[in-house]
Amino acid sequence: MASYVLGCLLLLAVAFVCLEARTDQTQDYTSFQYHRGALLTGDVSINLIWYGKFKPSQRAIVTDFVASLSSSRRSSMVQNPSVATWWKTVEKYYHVSKTTKTRGLTLSLGEHILDEGYSMGKSLTEGNLKALAAQGGQSYAVNVVLTSADVVVQGFCVNRCGSHGSGSGSGKKGSRFAYIWVGNSETQCPGQCAWPLHAPVYGPQSSPLVAPNNDVGLDGMVINLASLLAGTATNPFGDGYYQGPKTAPLEAGSACTGVYGKGSYPGYAGELLVDATTGGSYNAKGLNGRKYLLPALYDLKTSACSTLF
């Protein structure tokens, strides 16, 4: 009897191993895939929630970037390479999708919310970020929480420079809203979160580039915000486009970390333009004469990181 039971247990163990192996084989982590979930669609406002002290000139850097994303007539008049042209790589995701319900996405600058009094203190958790994000509109909106250089955020400088997620909407049952958080790393970890505008903490050492808007912290925030906006648009709720496991996905922007121009390699951002007056390095032009350094995005049609030139 004992041998019979042992035999059954062995058969069950073998079956379990076979089933587990078969399940693992269905998980393709080597390619960029669509996981049948929602993408951001429609006319979406980007609301900016400023937590902590920011100068008006600093807020203008981010504001002009967001306004430059639109495909409006004003944005289309900016000479290439432009921020609006950079965003067209994201728009390709909407044409490739096989879902009949997916329509296009149009972004516009929404409201500004200022919290200069640090209403939740200077040390924030993920829960605090979600609560701050919930202060913005929750219908056809992405709420962006921007924390100043003197604010410590859980995980900041340890394993992230920013993040995106979703929360439960206050409207109809089951509604969700998307949000982004980006921190100013200038005094905390510019070598991790503002490279190549600051010398890196690890890896090949090279001279840092001059920030295009003469503000390492804010120009670094734009880099991270740009990457996270691309990820939010194409994978807002964790079941859109990404590569790798759901718990640590590589998205449209994060799949190309460290790539800014052609010929890039570890320690070298790639071929970039240089402003003759300021010496600032950039690869995209925006509204109001702005110049920005933006990360490469993963192009679904070429299966490669796409740069502006």
TrEMBL record:
Principal location: secreted
A Pfam family this chain is assigned to: Phi_1
Location within or outside the cell: Secreted, Extracellular space, Apoplast
Signal peptide interval: 1-21
InterPro entries, per the entry: EXORDIUM-like (IPR006766)
Keywords, sorted A to Z: Apoplast, Secreted, Signal
Family, as annotated: Belongs to the EXORDIUM family.
Protein name in the entry: Protein EXORDIUM-like 1
Protein's gene: LOC104742024
